[in-house]
Amino acid sequence: MVFKRPAHLLVADVFLGKWRERASSYRNNRATKNAEILSWFTAIAEILGVDPLTKTGQNYVLRRKSMEFVIHAIDKLDSEQTRLDHRDDHVAYIKDSRDASVILAGPLLSDDGAHSIGSILIIDAADRNGAEAFAAGDPYAKAGLFERTAITHWIKTMG
Q: Which residues, in sequence order, are CB contacts of 57 under 8 Å at separation 6+?
């Protein structure tokens, strides 16, 4: 079976279905309703690997324990040999990193596709400090390959 909805939305669908089934029994007992909703959300948070619920106004929000970041690095001019010399270490670092998990990674190419001119990585890290530590620990960065690096918080919405 293939689901087109992300896991957290499927869990929310199940929750809402259960909620609708039981809603009529809660009309006169708000404390019971609120306690049960909180216990359901706490269970969902544990399943999804997110932080416990945070109350914002009248709503409870599930907060992810980690965040996604895009690392956009541009190579220095005439640095292709540096990239080649450190590629194996770079790939091993991406595969074995404990600071962040790599969602997607690949080189940026020149318009003719003949030369690498940078790197894009989308990572899942605990916070910005974790993303910065991951980028700084990359063997390419340690070898001085990059002219500049930008780290931007990112949220996937499609694909």
A: none
